[in-house]
Design brief:
The complex is a heterodimer. By secondary structure, chain A is α+β, with helices and mostly antiparallel strands. Chain A contains 4 helices and 11 strands; from the N terminus they run H-E-E-E-H-H-H-E-E-E-E-E-E-E-E. Chain A is globular. Classes of the chains: A alpha+beta, B mainly beta. Chains A and B meet through strand 3 and strand 5 of A and helix 1 and strand 6 of B.
C-alpha cells in the first residue's frame, strides 16, 4: 500500500479514536426500550456554588477557600461558580404587593424555613429515580426533609386520597426519549421559589427530563392563572449520574427561628 | 508553614439544601462582627436540617462547666464537603472552636466558624470576624 495512503489512514484512525473518546457515553435503556432513569443523581442545583477543599492532613475547607495552589493543597476543582441571578416568576400586577410583602417577611412566612414541604418545582430535580414500565418514583433529600413523588405512566391510577397536596398528583408519559411529568392538585401552602413566590391551587407544573449519557436535562414550566401573569420556566438544571448510593435524608427540625432578632435574610440564588 | 491557616472564607452560609433553599440571615440570630473561643470536648452532634448542631462541653466566663450549643451548616453542605456526624464528633479529645455569639446574649449558644481537633485537623465553616487571608510564609 502506498505510504501516503497508510499515513492518511493512520491519521484518520487517530482522529476517529479521539472523537470516540470525547463522545458522551451511550444512554442505557431499560428492557422496554425507554431511557434508563434509574440511579442517584446530583441534581445540579442548590449548593453547586460550594467548592469544598480537603487538605492532606484531613482538614476541610467548606466554602470560599483560598486558591488551592497557594494553600499547598492538592489540585482543586474549578473555582466556585458565581451565584446566578434570581430566577423568579412574573406575577399579575395586582399581586405584586403581596409578593413583596411576603418577600420582606419571608423569615416569618417561608414554609421551608419551618421545615414544611417545599412544593414543586421548588424542590428541584429528584436525587434518586426508581423506574419501572408502569411508573417512576422520585426520591428527594431536601433541606426540609425526605420526600417522594410517584409518577404513574399508565392511566386510571386512583390515589387513596384526592386532597390537594404539597407535591401534587403527578402523571408521566414519554415523548420520544423525554419523560414529561404533569402535576396538578396542589394545595396553596408552598412557594414556587424563594422570596415570596406564592401560588394558588390552580398551579400546574410540567417537568421534562431527558437523559443524555450520564447526564439528565431537567426543566420545569409553571402555570398558575390564579397568580402568574404568564407561565414561568424555572432555570433549567443538569443532573449528573452519581456512583454513590443515596444516604438517609436528615430530618428537619428548626431550632433557631425563635431566636431571630429581626427579619433579615439572604438573597437566594435560584 | 501551617497550611490550615491559609484559608479565607468569603461567604457566610446559612440554610441550604440540595434542592429547596431558604435563608434567614445569620446576623438575625448571631453577632457576626464578633467571635469567641471555646476549649472543650464534643459531647453530641445533632445531624439534622436546617442546621447541624454541635455540643461542646467547656467552661463559661465564670469558669464553671457549660455545654455550648453551636449551630452549623445544613447536612447537604456537610456531605458535599465529605463531612459526617462521625467526623464532627472527633476522637473524644479536646477541641478548640471559634463561634459567633448569639445576639440575644444567650451565653451557651453560638454559630460554629471553625473547629480544630487534637490531631491538628481543622474544619473551617465560615469566616472569623476580622480574619484576613493568611499568606504563605
Amino acid at each position: 500500500m502506498n505510504t501516503r495512503i497508510c499515513a492518511a489512514l493512520l491519521v484518520l484512525g487517530v482522529c476517529m479514536a479521539a472523537v470516540a473518546a470525547d463522545a458522551p457515553p451511550a444512554t442505557p435503556r431499560t428492557a422496554d426500550g425507554r431511557p434508563d432513569f434509574n440511579g442517584v443523581w446530583d441534581n445540579g442545583g442548590g449548593i453547586d456554588f460550594l467548592n469544598p477543599q480537603k487538605l492532606p492532613d484531613g482538614s476541610v475547607c467548606v466554602t470560599g477557600c483560598a486558591p488551592a495552589a497557594a494553600a499547598g493543597a492538592p489540585a482543586a476543582a474549578a473555582p466556585a461558580g458565581a451565584r446566578p441571578p434570581p430566577d423568579r416568576p412574573r406575577y399579575k400586577p395586582e399581586l405584586a404587593a403581596k409578593v413583596a410583602d411576603l418577600d420582606a417577611k419571608q423569615v416569618k412566612f417561608d414554609p421551608v424555613l419551618r421545615c414544611q414541604p417545599p412544593g414543586v418545582p421548588r424542590i428541584g430535580p429528584p436525587d434518586k429515580i426508581v423506574q419501572t414500565a408502569r411508573e417512576l418514583v422520585f426520591l428527594y433529600e431536601d433541606v426540609s426533609g425526605p420526600f417522594f413523588r410517584i409518577v404513574p405512566l399508565v392511566s386510571g391510577v386512583v390515589r387513596v386520597d384526592d386532597s390537594p397536596s404539597y407535591l401534587g398528583d403527578a402523571t408521566g408519559h414519554w415523548e420520544g426519549d423525554t419523560l414529561v411529568v404533569e402535576t396538578a392538585n396542589f394545595n396553596d401552602l408552598t412557594w414556587l421559589a424563594d422570596n415570596g413566590a406564592f401560588h394558588t391551587e390552580a398551579l400546574k407544573v410540567t417537568e421534562r427530563l431527558t437523559r443524555r449519557g450520564n447526564q439528565m436535562d431537567y426543566s420545569a414550566v409553571v402555570q398558575d392563572p390564579g397568580a402568574l401573569a404568564e407561565p414561568w420556566q424555572m432555570r433549567p438544571r443538569r443532573m449528573t449520574l452519581m456512583d454513590k448510593e443515596m444516604a438517609e435524608p436528615a430530618p428537619c427540625v428548626d431550632q433557631d427561628l425563635h431566636l431571630m432578632q429581626d427579619d433579615s435574610h439572604h438573597t437566594n440564588p435560584r | 508553614m501551617n497550611m490550615r491557616l491559609l484559608w479565607m472564607m468569603v461567604m457566610v452560609s446559612c440554610a441550604a439544601g440540595t434542592a429547596a433553599q431558604a435563608h434567614h440571615s445569620l446576623s438575625g440570630v448571631f453577632d457576626t462582627t464578633k467571635s469567641f473561643e471555646i476549649d472543650g470536648l464534643v459531647s453530641r452532634v445533632d445531624w439534622m436540617n436546617p442546621h447541624v448542631y454541635v455540643y461542646v462541653d467547656g467552661k463559661g466566663a465564670n469558669g464553671k462547666p457549660m455545654t455550648y450549643r453551636l449551630e452549623s451548616l445544613p447536612v447537604a453542605m456537610m456531605r458535599k464537603a465529605g463531612l459526617s456526624k462521625t467526623s464532627l464528633l472527633g476522637d473524644g479529645k479536646p477541641v478548640k472552636v471559634h463561634a459567633y455569639p448569639a445576639r440575644a446574649g444567650t451565653p451557651d449558644l453560638g454559630y460554629m466558624l471553625t473547629i480544630k481537633f487534637a490531631d491538628g485537623r481543622e474544619i473551617q465553616f465560615s469566616k472569623i470576624p476580622g480574619a484576613e487571608s493568611v499568606t504563605p510564609k
